[in-house]
Amino acid sequence: MAHPRIAASLLCVASFAAGVCGAATGTTVAPAAAEGAWPQSWPMYGMNAAHEATWNGSGTGANPVGWKFAVPGAVALAATPEDVRRQYVNVTAVRDLVGIPVGVSVAGGIVYVPGDDGHVYALGAADGKLVWQFDALNQIMTTPVVAPTARGVLVYVGGGNADFSYSEAVKFGTPGAAVVRGTGINGIYALQAKTGDPVWSFRTEGQDMPTPVYHAGRIIFGNGDGHVYALDAATGNLVWKTAIRSFVSMASATLAGDRVVVAGTHPDAIYALDAATGALAWKAEPGNVFSSSMGDCAPAAAGGIVVTQIETTTGKPGLAGSEEIAVDAATGKFAWRTMLGEGRVPPRNKDAVPMIADGVVYTGSPVTNTAYALDLGSGRILWSRKLSRMKAAPSVEDGHVFFPVANGTIFVLDRKTGAIVNAYHSGNGGFGPQNGVIVNHTMYIGTNYGWVYAIPTSEIVTAQSAR
């Protein structure tokens, strides 16, 4: 008898052309949402190029809300660490099965949630109820992108995993060989925002874990086969395809003016391409990059500067450096490089994603387990605060900056001083690359244990733990 997931996948493949794959559970049409109360689009990771994912609307529909949603198989709220080890062996296994791997998006009153279980879930932003779900037949590690098109408002997600086939892994031993990352079914899907019905799909050789960017009617992304693609957002037709050779893992695309910026591994470099033509504008190679860290971090851009983080080699067993780097968006020349410190090599994603607000770069480091605020123009460290392992982009609201960390705590720091205002214990599961987004004074965030939370930010600032 076929495994249930495989059987469902085969059924989905067979019925894709008929438009029935990804059938919803429960409501099949999203409720109407007042435009002033919610964002109407979500064009890239972190909502914008700076990753400043905070949007507070107006009207009665813009009040903060609180709810929890569990994906199928999520770890029970009452489970102890021993329960988790007994059932799943370790936390890493749990995340790969049911975790929410990266930040959600919120548009038109719907929260779009990516799942390591291969599904995207559409939830009512006000109540957390399931509107629809869709199976991409592989892990989904992209923040769902939402954009209006000639075919209605569409949601875009990428399917893919972090694996290497044996034939590709052995290429690491061959100088100059191009390596493809990702196994199984890889591709970009466009779905109807209200129903989850598939509109088109575009298959690729490598994984599609990085979040695409929507720009000028196109979906643009780097991926695991060493290319950057631009697709017509309404039809999925290929507009241009540029070879960069580097495979892009979790380094979601961002925009710097009319250029799309991605970062990749093997070789380790940051690339800026003309969004209209795909022509390479510049390539920046920082050197001394450890492991896949160049392609793990999603760059942020603001004020003509692109900021990212890399892990550096130290020559010391088990230790690595953590460095924040900035590149001039016009020329590709390094504007500044700030060493954050050294520490133990973190598991998996090697870097924390930066967020830029009001001329300040806010970021953490999974190497030093410290939060930082840096001046965007100079890279000077304004303050630092020892916390815990963190990888996600932080969020800001008013005078606070919110850092989700690996043990499930959301730290609230004073934006000016870095002083700890509160340590909020969210409940079930920790946070890795999952960035929190703040919409209508509510933080929407997923965990490694398969839970999605909507938490009023006032509660995170003042309360000690989840209700």
Summarize the structure.
With 467 residues, the protein is mainly beta.
Structural topology:
Layout: H1 4-15, E1 54-55, E2 67-70, H2 81-88, H3 91-98, E3 105-107, E4 110-114, E5 119-124, E6 130-135, E7 145-149, E8 152-159, H4 166-169, E9 187-192, E10 198-203, E11 213-215, E12 218-222, E13 227-232, E14 238-243, E15 254-256, E16 259-264, E17 269-274, E18 280-284, E19 300-302, E20 305-313, E21 319-328, E22 334-344, E23 355-357, E24 360-365, E25 370-375, E26 381-386, E27 395-397, E28 400-404, E29 409-414, E30 420-425, E31 437-439, E32 442-446, E33 451-456, H5 457-462
Parallel strand pairs: 1-31
Antiparallel strand pairs: 2-33, 3-4, 4-5, 5-6, 7-8, 8-9, 9-10, 11-12, 12-13, 13-14, 15-16, 16-17, 17-18, 19-20, 20-21, 21-22, 23-24, 24-25, 25-26, 27-28, 28-29, 29-30, 31-32, 32-33
Characteristic terms for this protein:
467 residues, mainly beta, Methylamine Dehydrogenase, Chain H, five-stranded mixed sheet, four-stranded antiparallel sheet, 5 helices, 38% strand, globular, disordered N terminus
